[in-house]
Design a protein that fits this description.
mainly alpha, 2 domains, 6 helices
Length: 118
């Protein structure tokens, strides 16, 4: 979790009668790990938006219609054809110390904090 003020504002949360993020996560048996305030390399949504932006720029749109078409094409390629679990894998296994990441493997993102595999 990033260190955004909403995640780390204990006084405001207490005033509002809201338990701390840590308390809420512990209730769901989730370990909280804080990262730097701005870490796009650890945010799957940022990685997807970056790819969408790059794919759109490759088309070099020069009008509204071309821009709209380029965005639609990028969204179709990225969101419909790509395995987005790779974005999560990258974030979970990001190396701050420059060491090589473990070999990529398929991961199943648990739904609602529970793995439904049986």
């Amino acid at each position: 979790m990033d260190n955004a003020k909403i995640h780390t504002a204990p006084k405001k949360r207490k005033e509002a009668g809201i338990p701390s993020v840590e308390e809420q996560m512990l209730r769901k048996n989730i370990e909280v790990r804080f990262i730097t305030r701005y870490a796009p390399m650890l945010n799957p949504a940022e990685l997807v938006f970056n790819t969408l932006r790059q794919q759109t720029e490759k088309q070099r749109p020069r009008s509204y219609e071309e821009l709209k078409s380029a965005i639609e094409k990028a969204v179709e390629e990225v969101l419909n054809e790509e395995d987005l679990s790779k974005r999560f894998w990258h974030c979970v296994n990001y190396s701050f110390d420059g060491k090589k990441q473990p070999k990529e493997k398929k991961i199943k993102i648990p739904y609602n904090g529970k793995n439904n595999d049986k």
